[in-house]
Amino acid sequence: MRIVKTPSTMYRPRGRFPRPSPTPTSTGPRAGGHPALEFCNTYAGWGGERLPGSDWLRGYATLAVWAGHLDLIEERHVVRLRERARRQPEEAAAALDEARRFRTDLYACLTDPQDGRAFRAVAEVVEEAARLSVFTRGEDGLARWQPSPSAGLRLPLCAVARTAGELLADARRFTLRSCPSPDCGWLFLDERGRRRWCSLATCGNRRTSVRDAGG
User: Fold this and answer.
1) Rounded to the nearest 5 degrees, what angle is found at the Cα of 172, between the Cα atoms of 8 and 6?
2) Which pairing describes strands 3-4 and 187-189: parallel, antiparallel, or unpaired?
């Protein structure tokens, strides 16, 4: 079984993988520009009223396949995690809830650098992910840190937490912006300082249409 990747934020799993619903900007390239931001962007409507379909991580299987799609964990681990989640549904639900809480804390930490509570919550998970990492050599011959399979069903969370720690230690985080659309709030890096919307094809186009209609 392999994950078929596309240039868009939506992916098409093949074989036994489920077919998730598209994300709000599935018509264009990945909006965030960094895996930690793409994780935050699995939710739409930050700061607004929770709407039906706002949370793209509707089940543990989606979380596992998402992590595989972004190359945060290996395909073989995706298959094993999905099988284990079917055998241990309560543990899988708990792992998904923890990942969602981390996503909320990470979003708060990134959008408000003065939020000490959010930073401490994120740092705790990042430090644990570091303890559960192993130094391995890939098929390309290059060595890298990877989350250890010993993390069990928390493997996707540990994988994204490592990338979150890297982003928080990267000066590029200061170029971060959020989409102003009230039903979006997606995060993205704006290193050139010229970008306003997560995607001109969706939020930008919709707001322009609303403005023109009002005029």
Assistant:
1) 10
2) unpaired
